[in-house]
Structure formats: C-alpha cells, structure tokens
Amino acid sequence: MSEHLRLGVNIDHVATVRNARGGIYPDPVRAAQLAAEAGADGITAHLREDRRHITDDDIARLSETLTVPLNLEMAATEEMLRIALRHRPHAACIVPEKREERTTEGGIDAAGQFDRLLPMVSALREAGTRVSLFIEPDARQIDAAMRLGAPVVELHTGRYCELDGAARTEELRRIADAAALAAKNGIEVHAGHGLTFDNVAPIAAIPQVVELNIGHFLIGEAIFVGLAESIRRMRAAMDAAR
Ligand code: PXP
C-alpha cells in the first residue's frame, strides 16, 4: 500500500460563495494557496460549462500561481479541451456534466462514449496532462478506461456516501473491487465525491487508492473551524485510516 494518500482539495465552492454576490471575495485562488500551506497535495477545480462557480480567470490565475499540482475537472467538450490544452494543467479529470444538475451525478460512461473520448484523452496525454476519468466503480468502465489509455481513474464515491447499513457496505465492496481491478491493470486509482470526516476512513483504507478529491464538506467545515484546520482534520482522518 502506498503510505501517503494524497489529498486534492476542491475549491469550487469558495467560488460559489464569491459568485453569490458577484464580487471578488472570497477568492478561490487565495483558498488554494492556503490549502496548499495546510497540507493539500493538489488543488482541484471544475470549470463548468455554465461557469456557475470557477471561472476562466480563476483557472488562469491558478495555473500561474499554484505551487502544487492543479487537477482541472472538465466535461468532454471541444471548448473544455481547448482550455485544457492552453493551460496544460498537471492533471485533467473528465467528468459527465448536465446543466440542470446540482453536482456531478454519476460517472462518465467511458464505455458508451468511447469514440468521443479517445481523441480527447490522446490530445491531453500528448500535451503532458495526466488524464483521469471519473467513473462508477464498474468493471466495464475500467475496461474502457484501459482501452482509452487513461493512466488514472477516479472512482465515484457519491453513492457510497448516500447509502447506509448493508447497502453502504455493498457499495464499499464494489469500490474496493474496482480499485483492485484498475490497479492490477496498471491504472492509478483516485476516489471522491461526498466524502466527510465521518465516511472517509473506509475509502482511505482501500490500499490501491492513492488520492482523494474532496471539496464541498471541507469548504463548509471551514466556516466553523477555518480552512486550514478543516484540511488538517481531514488529513488526520485519512492518515489514521491508512
Ligand atoms: N471528484 C469529482 C470528479 C467531482 O466532480 C467532485 C465534485 O466536484 C469531487 C471529486 C468532490 O466532491 P465533493 O465536493 O462532494 O467533495
């Protein structure tokens, strides 16, 4: 098991609060710098098609100033591909996106959208960006990720977080099985969505998972304890589970 489980802090919802007033405060780039100082191994930002939180200018400023790797979450569109190729972030995570959804619902259908994704994955890889596919913990999706040449998959933990009791245990088993299958085939495994102090441990304990991407809960918790402390507590919960 890799000892250090990386924490990618998603700063989208700092931008959500900023945009509620349309001004420049709070600045997600400042939050990203603070997160890096507090122990984040990377910063994740989702430039959505409708720009409801992170903006093009945020991505430009993050690209210029970050001292830790940037993971750009993006829909599989030509516009997002152009932006990613312009900034060449360390990593790009391809996610499904629907305008009406509140947050990313479900993983991308890598198997069903194979032909559409193949040139995008290739172009990003050629630009030196580490491509990850945000997928459901499902053997068919992992097989598609392999055939697409994606070096990384991020397993969707949203369902695990919403369920409880035996159903949660069953979903955890699906995630663990998917992680083992991906790693056995040489794919790096990340996980994320909906993680909190209370539910992170079993995911952090999956030996093949090397990175967690966490946003909404950390930013919400920052209201009560501050961003640095929120991140430190998550870091501690992850390390304890490892
Ligand atoms: N990973 C991916 C691919 C996501 O789309 C999101 C949500 O933007 C996250 C992780 C983080 O989820 P949450 O904000 O619920 O922690």
Please, could you describe this protein's structure?
The protein has helices spanning 12-21, 28-37, 56-65, 78-87, 114-126, 139-148, 158-162, 165-184, 200-204, 216-225, 227-241; strands spanning 6-10, 42-46, 70-74, 91-94, 130-135, 152-156, 188-192, 209-214. Helix 2 packs parallel to helix 3 and helix 10 packs across helix 11. The protein is globular, with a radius of gyration of 17 Å. Helix 6 (139-148) links the parallel strand 5 and strand 6 (152-156). It is α/β, with parallel strands linked by helices and 242 residues long. The model has no long low-confidence stretch (mean pLDDT 96). An eight-stranded parallel barrel has the order 1-2-3-4-5-6-7-8, surrounded by seven helices. The longest helix has 20 residues, at 165-184. The chain has one domain (6-241): Aldolase class I (TIM Barrel), CATH 3.20.20. It binds pyridoxine-5'-phosphate (PXP).
Q: In total, how many domains does the architecture comprise? A: 1
> What CATH architecture label applies?
Alpha-Beta Barrel
CATH superfamily: Aldolase class I
CATH secondary-structure class: Alpha Beta
Which percent band covers the strand fraction?
15-25%
Reported by name, the CATH topology is TIM Barrel
Helix content: 40-55%
Structural class: alpha/beta
User: Which stretches are low in confidence, meaning pLDDT under 50 for 5 or more residues running?
Assistant: none
The assembly state of the depicted protein chains is: single chain
Radius of gyration: 17 Å
What is the 3D form? globular
Q: Could you tell me how far the N terminus lies from the C terminus, measured between alpha carbons in angstroms? A: 9 Å
Roughly what is the average pLDDT, rounded to an integer?
A: 96
Main beta-sheet strand count, sense and barrel state: 8 strands, parallel, barrel
Order of helices and strands: EHHEHEHEHEHEHHEHEHH
**Biggest sheet, spatial arrangement of strands:** 1-2-3-4-5-6-7-8
